[in-house]
Amino acid sequence: MRVGVLTGGGDCPGLNAVIRAVVRKGIEAHGWDVVGFRHGWRGPMEGISRPIGLDDVEDILTRGGTILGSSRTNPYKVDGGVEKIKAVLADQGVDALIAIGGEDTLGVAKKLTDDGVGVVGVPKTIDNDLGATDYTFGFDTAVHIATESIDRLRTTAESHHRALVVEVMGRHAGWIALHSGLAGGANVILVPERPFSVDKVVEWVTRRFEREYAPIIVVAEGALPEGGDEVLLTGEKDAFGHVRLGGIGTWLADEIANRTGKESRAVVLGHTQRGGTPTAYDRVLATRFGLHAVDAVADGDFGVMVALRGTDIVRVKLAEATAELKTVPVERYAEAEVFFG
Amino acid sequence: MRVGVLTGGGDCPGLNAVIRAVVRKGIEAHGWDVVGFRHGWRGPMEGISRPIGLDDVEDILTRGGTILGSSRTNPYKVDGGVEKIKAVLADQGVDALIAIGGEDTLGVAKKLTDDGVGVVGVPKTIDNDLGATDYTFGFDTAVHIATESIDRLRTTAESHHRALVVEVMGRHAGWIALHSGLAGGANVILVPERPFSVDKVVEWVTRRFEREYAPIIVVAEGALPEGGDEVLLTGEKDAFGHVRLGGIGTWLADEIANRTGKESRAVVLGHTQRGGTPTAYDRVLATRFGLHAVDAVADGDFGVMVALRGTDIVRVKLAEATAELKTVPVERYAEAEVFFG
Amino acid sequence: MRVGVLTGGGDCPGLNAVIRAVVRKGIEAHGWDVVGFRHGWRGPMEGISRPIGLDDVEDILTRGGTILGSSRTNPYKVDGGVEKIKAVLADQGVDALIAIGGEDTLGVAKKLTDDGVGVVGVPKTIDNDLGATDYTFGFDTAVHIATESIDRLRTTAESHHRALVVEVMGRHAGWIALHSGLAGGANVILVPERPFSVDKVVEWVTRRFEREYAPIIVVAEGALPEGGDEVLLTGEKDAFGHVRLGGIGTWLADEIANRTGKESRAVVLGHTQRGGTPTAYDRVLATRFGLHAVDAVADGDFGVMVALRGTDIVRVKLAEATAELKTVPVERYAEAEVFFG
Amino acid sequence: MRVGVLTGGGDCPGLNAVIRAVVRKGIEAHGWDVVGFRHGWRGPMEGISRPIGLDDVEDILTRGGTILGSSRTNPYKVDGGVEKIKAVLADQGVDALIAIGGEDTLGVAKKLTDDGVGVVGVPKTIDNDLGATDYTFGFDTAVHIATESIDRLRTTAESHHRALVVEVMGRHAGWIALHSGLAGGANVILVPERPFSVDKVVEWVTRRFEREYAPIIVVAEGALPEGGDEVLLTGEKDAFGHVRLGGIGTWLADEIANRTGKESRAVVLGHTQRGGTPTAYDRVLATRFGLHAVDAVADGDFGVMVALRGTDIVRVKLAEATAELKTVPVERYAEAEVFFG
């Protein structure tokens, strides 16, 4: 048997751990040939592949990125894309595919399965916003890095009696903000799921200063002030013009400085959150995902995605898996509010 | 309302995060007075306590250890111990207790509830061997530290063509060995749940050397070779005399060296695994446990323990919680075996 | 004898290590009373102080920030400021001062010594731009943090075939950029000492992409393109308008994207570089500075600053110490250029 | 021109950074062919080599170990060893060698130069015990790792009111113990240069417990109690029998427990100290060593070793460089004693 593996979409710590597990189990337990397709779906479409053996994956568990490269190519948006994939797989004698990626990659995986190609999906989103699994790998690493930064920023904030706004990843879901904010002891946490009142933020910040501490505000990049959308849509640049240039973190730091008269600074963590070596947690999760994806292929159980439920790895239909975005529920946010101010 | 909190048993990263969450939510959400009892159950027995306010917990989230101190005192093994506790609580006007600890501490919590004292438990075991919860805080930190060490040891092993045996914590359960072994890319993982064959270990090690890599063997402190118990019981010191002195890691490194003729070294990670700042994962888990313990007290729901199930914090009866040791199941160990050799 | 200690200027990892060493040696070796003045020079001017004993410094070695607080108050810019200090010192029976700070703080220390107050200086600048000492504490920590970030950003850059611009601290001196750029394997390093040619940067970046790697560009916040000053002075905002808003990093990332057609992103490390626990190197250096400052006071050798020369701690006159900014010399920058492109 | 490079002796973080700098500068600045010899001096003796190009060193800066492998082979202890090296170099057209290693490797380098082979040395010793240079790379990494461990152990010691003995590397020189002890806030530091009085250690430990803190004792593996040598020589095993089995750390922990009645534990950091990614400090130092070694070769200045003096890289004669062991001087140890107890 000959099985292909590919990675699609953005960088995420743990991709290599999945690849390693697939190769290792495919070869050691099943005697398969494993083939790596390069650059996401471009690989099987254009026939860019190479065999991956045990030696190729010896040294990759601890490394960020993906040895296969990635892309956002979608064969369903390319003329004859699906036919090309089928031809390449037939030509190379590849019997099944393991596709590691986010919503887009898994969406293609689902359609391909419907179209007769055997695909098993492995979920990947640093934002943890995929509903069908408790957690995705990469998320713990992002939270870990953001928390380390918050730890460091606290002493600086305290020494200078400043407000510090830390902007973390999360365009549509506030999981990284919520978890790193809780772990870092943030005094305000702002998420995309819940438009925030600047007055309320100023109130928390002021209370903090009155208690003679320095406030740390963790804000997801996708968080917006109440009415922020409208203002942006109407193009009023005075009030929110900074948003596009410097992001919500910079905008909020300015607002806090203006309204409280206190020094206020923003730090935008940016891409540091998604690179580098994965945490132990993410290595274990990614490894287990890889192993169970191989099991699904061995069982001929295609059109599924591996997922974490409690401490178990289970299989869910790709159709369900990509159905909806998992956002921070009201009660989880409420849980954190007791630490605000 | 006046609520007491105490920590019992061994050190574990995240204890302070629980205390902080209890104090913060107790005061901010319920207006309680929170009282810290010192030295585990000795505190409420001997009346050693002090009020804990918001300022006392400002700075403790990131710190290992416990600001309350700990002990292994068991009031049920002290004459009149339970009566003393009741008298102290009555005297200090304490209405309920939150007890953070392992099997022993929670066992006392259960009995006290039966005896009419309102107690809510928070589980704490670095070994992750408590059945009623998916994970306990401290475990992720221990795995993280062990994994960092394995990462460092790999290059040394490779440079010197040596076998390296890493002994990690885990007397009765192999969770730390399993997870850090998977995360560190270990070539053999040995756990207390499964007596190991030295011949098999030597086979894996040899195969590894033949592939021109250096083997890393992760062994839980409680792992034993097949027949190890008997040998130890009969007092044959020649074969296993080293075990008591240097631990299983040292013993195994010697065995490997003797049987393969290759250099072999042991590193015993020891107490470094259970101290210092908790990982972000453990801080979030410990914080959520603390918040939900307060909810249980507020609900008057005593005799329960908070527990993680998937991504939810739930309550379980203390009676169930302490009933059995959660060991590494056969299938989880089997999952890892594909990486051996 | 009664000796005061104070910290002035910006936050810097290692301040608490100096304070601890001063207190420990002052008390243990000399039997002094040690007094901490709060908020830099404001403390001795306004009489805000408290005794510091051994217990106060037990727990501070590993912590960022300063337990004494800081400020930028300059008694020579306050009416009667110096007289106030003399009066406070006389009143509190303080015989000598140890002042930990940068150029401004040490400038005051020098003048005060001339005016009859016994002061010993301890140099502090995260930028490492003080000429009289090989290194200052805080610098190694800043370089360590910047390097960790570069390590993480590399895999992201590679996975996405992007240029990544990392903006680090250094308004007037490029030491942090130079050292973190060397340690992180940067493909271009830009420092304030040397206006850069954007054409040349684009050439290096292009070469890097041609070799199928992703370029990492480390730029000090104070670095400017050739002609940048003039352009800024003449107020031409089109070309350099972004500089003020987003900093040189963002500006440069835009330039690279525009000129190469490749995706390009900026990460501004900002305040994360100056907070949190010091590296072992900085803890040792800060500790030794504190010990030797006590020796100078004990010798009655005022108007001096402790400094590192090779592996020795020496004393230099404060007058020399604050005379000139230590910038990156031409040959040190040239040394690094072999790694560009 | 064709230049060979090799690494000899034990593992040390930074070896790959030297190799990368040599290759990069050799090729980019001088247009050399660079050849890597494998397994230390075995490589040039047996002709085991391969060309190293820019791509080979792209990814190695952050990695521990050495891509060239290492050995302790000494051509002067092999019949005709030197002649073999000359023949291989002539055969492969190699004009000069850069040898990275410790005392042994550099001793061979010196003799080879005397025997007409052009060699430039790069010093490598994790123990920092080479007299001709302020610091060697690898040392800062070892101190960093030991300090992180001490930080973690402190909270465990405090929570359990235990004495914790941390055994670090250093057979003949106590530099790692001294620096990690200072950086970690150790309460006793014991080094090979100074036989210690167990009574004195017990006194410090006791004082610490009386102040209600938990003592941390950092001991170099080569430290010995007063009279320890004699006792060992006379073979009295009762008193010091544990020394050989468990090392000085374990022995000392037992002594402390026996004499104070307090719980006492030993942690032996072992090989974790010498593997894994180098600190930023070590990467910069190693890189600069590599660059300057190339300069020396380009100048035809053989028989020298590069060395750090203050912030400069200088050249010293190999003869001087290997003449004597740099141990911890009396005054540096005395400096630290103020923190004992």
From TrEMBL, chains A, B, C, D:
Signal sequence region: none
Active-site residues (renumbered): D127 (proton acceptor)
Domain Phosphofructokinase: 2-297
Cofactor or coenzyme needed: Mg(2+)
Subcellular location: Cytoplasm
EC top class, as a word: transferase
Pathway in which the depicted protein is active: Carbohydrate degradation; glycolysis; D-glyceraldehyde 3-phosphate and glycerone phosphate from D-glucose: step 3/4
Subunit-structure text: Homodimer or homotetramer.
Name this polypeptide is given: Pyrophosphate--fructose 6-phosphate 1-phosphotransferase
Gene behind the chain: pfp
